[in-house]
Every structure is written in C-alpha cells, then in structure tokens.
Design brief:
Shape: globular
Number of strands: 34
Strand order of the largest sheet: 19-14-13-22-23-34-33-30
Radius of gyration: 26 Å
Strand content: 25-35%
C-alpha cells in the first residue's frame, strides 16, 4: 500500500511517502508553500510534484490538518446553536470562576462562543444517579428543532444534564435536528463524562468547526479521486477516516504536532532510547512533548479560551517559530512572537515581508545557507533582512548583528521555558533525556537549548522538516471511549468494572469495524481516572488487578506523597481501541560505511557566534553517510531543514542516518 503523509503548517505543507519494502526502501519527500486560503491547493501541488518524481496514485493519504485549529483561534466557525436542559442555558457563558489575567483590572472575557439568542432550553431532566425525573417528549423535540432551524444556525450542539448516564433524550433531539438539515453534535458522543461546563464547551467547539472540516475534507477527497482513501490524524496520535473526522473535528485540533511525536516513538523503537523530549520548531510555533517509554496523554486543554476535554498527546506550545516577528515593546524590551509572518508575506528574506523574524536573524548570522535553502528551489534575499535589521537596531543604538543574536536569544528563552514546563515542572530532570529536534527550524536552536537545560545529546532524524508528516505513516487507527462511573473503592467490584469495560470494548470493536479494521488487528487498552475522595482532579491509572495500590504509587510519583488510609474514587473508565496498520521500516545501515572517513565538505562559511565571526564547515546532508563524524562549528544543510553545530559540539551520523550531536554540556 502506498501511503502519503501530509502535514499542513503555517508556512509550508509537507508530503512524504515510503517507497520500497521495509528497511530497504526510502522516503521520498516534497515541501511546498502553504496556501492558507485553501489548504487543499498546496496538497494537490505537492502530490503533483510526487507524481512528476514517479510516484503512482497513492492508496491512502493521512493528513495532519490545521482547519479546525485555525477556525477556533480566529473565531471563524459556523453559526452554532446550543440546546441544553431547562435552567442551564448559561453554563457555557458562566464557565468557571478562573480568570486568565488575575491581576489585570482591565481584563475582559471574550464573548461567549454561542451568543445569548442561540442558547436554547428544552424541558426534561435526568438526575445524577441516572434516573429520569422528566423525559423530553417527541413534541418538545420537534418544537425545539423548528426553533433552532428558524435561527439560521448551520450547526447545533446538544448537551443535556447527565446525558452521559442516559443519552436517549439527546438521540431524540439529534434525529429531529438532523432532519432539518443541521449539522448535529451530541455531547454523549463527543465526551461521555461528567463536568457539565467542559462537556458543553467541547461539544460546542466541535459543532462550530465540524461543518468547515467536513466541507474541506469533501473538497480534498474530490481532488484526490476515488482511488485514494483519506484519513486524518487525531490529537491523540491515532488516525480517523475522513467521515469520522468531519463529524468530530474537535479531535483533530493538534493533529499536525501529534504526527511528530508519533514519528519520535518510531525512532525510539529503532534506537532503544526510551526517554526523549521532542522539539518541533516550525514557522509559526514550537511544540514540545516528553516521552518516557510512551508519550504522556491528557484530557485537559484550553484552545483560544475554550476548554476542550478529549484524549490528546500532552504537548506544550509557544508562539516562537521561524516566522515569529521581532519587535520592541512600549518599554523598549525586545519581543519575539507570538505573531508570525506566516506563509504570506513571510519573513523579510523571502522577498515580500516587511517584518523581521527569527529566520531573518539566523540568515544574517550565517546559519542559513541561501543557495541551499529548500534544496536551492527557493530564492532568499539576505540584503533585505540585513537592511531591516540594521535600521531596527540603529534606532536602539545597537548593531544589526547584536540585534540578530538578541532575537535568537529571546526566541530560545521562550522555547526553553516550554521544555521546562513538560519536564522540570512535572518532576523530570531534562539531563536524563535526549532531545529529538525536528521542524524546519529545530536544528538551528537545538544545541543551544540543550546546553541551557543541562542535556548532552541531540538527535536530528532524517527529513527533520517533514518529520510530522512522516509520523502520519506510523500512526494506527484509534478511537477513544470513556464512561463516568463515580464509584468509591468499596463499590468497585471487579465484575462490575469488567462489565462496564465490556460495554466500552463492544463500542470500540463496532467503531473500528466501521473504519475497516479486521478484528485480529484490534488492540484494546483500558485505564481508569482515579482520585482521593474530595479531590477535584484525577490521575489516569492503567487498569490491572491491584488498581488501588497502583493509584497510590502514581500519586506519590506525581505529587510526592500518598495517603493509603484515605478512600479512593474511581471516576471515569477509559478505553483506547487501536487498529494496527502496516508501517514502513526506517532505512538503516549498521555497517557504518563512513566510519573513519572525513565527511565531504560543500565549502565553508563565516558565521556569528557570541558576537564574533568564526569559520565553519558546510556539509550537505545527502552526502553524509552513517559513521561520518565532524566537530563544530559547522552547518548541515538539507532540503527541509538546517542544523547548526556550534563550537564545542561533535556530530556523528548513526545507522539510521540521524545526526547525533554531543553537545559538550
């Protein structure tokens, strides 16, 4: 099967395919400018490039999409109504008492994602124990569907009180609303869990963006043709069919970054390195995640102020990328990001943009090689960047080179803080991990960051600028299911838990069957969200025979203490149903043919390091073989990225073709 992985970024769209069998094959990749107004056009352009290179029509395209993410961030979702239980129409507007800017007296909350006129109430009530005080009548459901249709809404979210215990009323309303031609999101299908505000928010976010995603995927499928199937990456690291993704677009919010973490897991399997920190620096932002045998997972995130409670890889994102804009604030401090030059107009050195970016700074410092950028297929204009840097610096009494190094330092400080959030702040010592860096700009900053964090090794995998797209090729089909049970430990009999898990397993098998997965390729992973009675947050514990002891141990590891005498609650059961897919092998050469040989240089350059010019060797990555080694200062250029090896660092090429850098820390 020929599978193409696609990652749509803010600046470039990446496509990659594995050609050949297993470790004897090779990856073929292309990188094209993104088309923000219609992301599908960049994908079609990339596929056309692959076709010219001899690729036959692919059997499947696996897509990491930003359509849902951008719609939420830019508040450009469709007109959406909310139907909820009588007396609870303002749950979404009231939210929690938390304030994002606690000490800002001028802070104001953003308008509610669903305006007052579109928040509607329906009679009927399910109680906390699952009993029914009042049912929603068929007449009330028909009347509500007529009222929603009359508002002109395109989509509707249905979130009834305690519907996760009994979804019959939501089903009834859903049928009537769908009959009026509305796109319907039912809360028990999106998030079958307690916490009314978070469940309602997640369902509304899904309702707001799913019609946009469905239209986009339909247009993409039409362009691909009937011979090519289309799947979409989820935030959890699994893939969905396009049909399911069009209904539950909220699950794709972090689909692109999730691809990079999935590819890092494949690298972990091949190298035997279990502890990694992934560092994905693209054009707009930087995403970091921690792998300790497996990626951490979370069900709690906030996107543009809206809680989204779905299973996803635990990542931290900062607005620092190659296209992040530099400026001086009102107090004269240098800032970098979160605003980005994006794909259009792009950095100043691209020839159209006027703002200065991290990419412009790296170019002026000599760390980006203009004639080798994107394999020489894209022209850069260093003079534009130098002129604007000099003008901006002169206004502050600085030199252009000082400002360039300052821009890089400010961006790296933001990225270092992001890595500390997912490591130090969660009880992990970064020095015990290897930094796996990818994204088009990751290799330019990786060594500097690791030195600041006390880490001693960096791995730059093959095709780093397309690594997230590569992860799409290693992803399994996956669906996540949950059910809130709220049981004290003395109520949680093993047979009761097994019965509830059996219900979830049956759902998982049915859904994977719809996705075309054979029963023999299905794996079911069970876990339980648990807490001490009285706590407000839970820890997720793998399901096993000694569940309570496992919870105590995990609580101690996470928070530094445990209280074995305190009652434990089992809050939510979770099941991840995975359908295994055929995966490519990572090409490797254990003979290390370059060992003991001097790697061929493509020339030399002068670059700026700590305020002074130093001579540096220039290498083209395609000419480096496993076993080659060199010392910094050096620059390694390739089609999709550039790697900077500063003085004191040593680089070697391993059997997989990865650049392994000893930072000298």
């Amino acid at each position: 099967m020929i599978v193409v992985g696609v990652d749509t970024g803010g600046t470039f769209t990446d496509l990659i395919v594995h050609a050949g069998d297993g470790a004897t094959g090779r990856f073929v990749a292309v990188k094209v400018p993104s088309t923000p107004d219609d992301p599908a056009q960049a994908i079609f352009a990339g596929l056309e490039r692959l076709k010219i290179m001899g690729l036959p029509v692919p059997d499947r395209v696996v897509h990491g999409s930003t359509v849902a993410t951008n719609a939420i961030l830019e508040r450009k979702g469709v007109k959406t109504a909310l139907v909820t239980t009588a007396g609870f129409r303002d749950v979404l507007a009231i939210g929690r008492q938390n304030r994002a800017d606690l000490y800002d007296p001028a802070s104001r909350r953003a308008p509610c994602i669903v305006p007052d006129a579109l928040r509607l109430e329906v009679p009927g009530r399910i109680l906390a124990d699952g009993s029914r005080r009042e049912a929603v009548s068929p007449e009330a459901a028909r009347d509500m569907a007529d009222r929603v249709a009359a508002t002109g809404a395109e989509s509707v979210a249905v979130s009834l009180l305690f519907s996760f215990l009994d979804p019959a009323d939501e089903f009834l309303l859903g049928r009537e609303l769908a009959a009026r031609g509305l796109h319907v999101s039912l809360s028990h299908e999106i998030m079958r869990e307690f916490r009314e505000f978070e469940r309602t928010s997640t369902t509304v976010v899904n309702a707001t963006v799913s019609p946009l995603m469905a239209r986009y995927l339909t247009r993409l499928e039409e362009g691909l043709g009937q011979e090519t199937g289309l799947c979409v990456m989820q935030s959890s690291g699994g893939i969905l069919t396009s049909t399911t993704a069009g209904r539950q677009a909220v699950r794709t919010i972090l689909s692109g970054p999730a691809g990079g973490v999935t590819a890092a897991m494949a690298l972990s399997w091949e190298t035997g390195l279990k502890r990694m920190i992934t560092f994905d620096m693209g054009g707009t932002s930087t995403d970091v995640a921690l792998l300790d045998g497996a990626p951490g997972m979370t069900t709690e995130t906030v996107v543009a102020g809206h809680p989204v409670t779905i299973p996803m890889i635990d990542m931290h994102t900062v607005g620092a990328g190659g296209g992040s804009l530099a400026a001086f604030d009102a107090a004269g401090a240098l800032t970098v990001g979160p605003h980005s030059a994006g794909a259009d107009p792009g950095p100043a050195c691209y020839g159209r943009g006027e703002g200065l970016t991290v990419t412009d700074a790296n170019l002026v410092l000599g760390r980006i090689i203009p004639e080798l950028f994107l394999g020489g297929r894209m022209s850069l204009f260093p003079q534009r960047a130098e002129t604007r840097l000099a003008a901006m610096a002169a206004a502050r009494g600085m030199t252009g080179l000082d400002l360039a190094e300052g821009i890089v330092a400010v961006a790296e400080a933001a990225m270092e803080r992001a890595i500390r959030v997912i490591s130090v702040e969660r009880g992990h010592d970064p020095a015990e991990f290897t930094l796996v860096c990818f994204g088009g700009a990751g290799g330019l900053h990786a060594v500097s960051l690791t030195r600041s964090l006390g880490m001693n090794r960096v791995i730059v995998p093959p095709h780093p600028g397309l690594f997230s797209a590569m992860g799409m090729l290693f992803a399994d089909i996956a669906r996540d299911f949950s059910a809130t049970v709220m049981l004290d430990q003395d109520q949680a009999a093993a047979d009761l838990l097994e019965a509830r898990f059996a219900e979830l397993s049956a759902c998982g098998m049915r859904e994977l069957d719809k996705e075309g997965v054979a029963p023999g390729d299905v794996a079911l992973l069970r876990s339980v969200d648990m807490r001490y009675r009285g706590q407000s947050f839970e820890l997720n514990v793998p399901y096993g025979p000694d569940l309570i002891a496992a919870f105590h141990a995990l609580h101690e590891k996470t928070y530094g203490y445990k209280t074995p005498g305190r009652p434990v609650q089992l809050v939510t059961l979770r099941l991840r149903a995975t359908g295994r897919t055929d995966k490519p092998g990572l090409p490797r050469d254990d003979a290390l043919p370059g060992r003991g040989q001097e790697p061929p240089q493509a020339g030399s350059r002068r670059l700026v390091h700590q305020g002074r010019y130093v001579p540096a060797a220039l290498y083209e990555r395609k000419r480096l073989m496993p076993g080659h080694a060199c010392a910094g200062p050096a620059v390694v250029a390739e089609d999709s990225a550039t790697t900077y090896v500063p003085p004191g660092a040593v680089l070697r090429v391993d059997a997989l073709g990865s650049l392994v850098i000893d930072t000298g820390a």
